[in-house]
Design goal:
The protein is 18% helix and 33% strand. By secondary structure, it is an alpha+beta fold. The protein has one domain: tt1808, chain A, CATH 3.90.1570. The chain has a six-stranded mixed beta sheet with strand order 3-4-5-6-7-8. A two-stranded antiparallel sheet has the order 1-2. The longest helix has 18 residues.
């Protein structure tokens, strides 16, 4: 016999965050765990990624790992980037690359030096990426690659304000001497 379960009330927050989150809160681990970013001290909850998003994130990570080899460090999975300490702004990137020049040793914890490249995967739940892009560029990140798995397109944004759009068959230079195309992915 089927039992009817009441529908959950998603209008009520199940996790209570402090009204303003500080850099000290972040370092001391005083923030409840969850999937979020912090913008100007306020917690902005995020939806978990769907399978397609995760699949593309993994595929692009593996391809970049192959292309970048010993040039630096690559990380995947909502990597925390401290954009500003006061007020605290902590962004979560899908994939980041940092060169050995910036980080001779493998980074630990949140990134507080701008990575050389950030990759964001578009999809349901990713919301408007423009505020995030503005934060990335204000922090000094030189290039952000935005991948749209549904349309199989790439958009390369630069700190100089340039943007170029590319289809799956096009090979583009995402870093000096490093070219990527989507044709062999997912």
């Amino acid at each position: 016999m089927a039992v009817s379960c009441p529908r959950p009330d998603f209008t009520q927050k199940s996790i209570i965050y402090p009204p303003k989150v500080t850099y000290r809160d972040l370092l001391e681990g005083n923030i409840p765990s969850g999937l979020y970013e912090i913008v100007n001290g306020e917690v902005v909850e995020m939806a978990p990624a769907g399978f397609l998003h995760g699949d593309w994130e993994g595929e692009i990570y593996l391809r970049l790992k192959e292309l970048l080899k010993d040039k630096g460090w690559l990380a995947v999975g909502e990597v925390g980037i401290v954009i500003s300490r006061e007020p605290l702004t902590l962004r979560a990137a899908d994939i980041v690359f940092v060169s050995r020049e910036k980080y001779p040793e493998r980074p630990r914890g949140y990134l507080e030096t701008p990575p050389d490249l950030v990759v964001e995967i578009e999809g349901p739940g990713s919301g408007d990426l423009h505020p995030k892009l503005r934060d990335y560029f204000a922090f000094g990140i030189p290039r952000v690659l935005v991948v749209n798995p549904k349309e199989k397109t790439l958009a390369l944004y630069t700190a100089e304000g340039r943007v170029s759009f590319h289809g799956a068959e096009e090979e583009i230079e995402i870093l000096p001497g490093v070219k990527l195309s989507l044709k062999d992915l997912a």
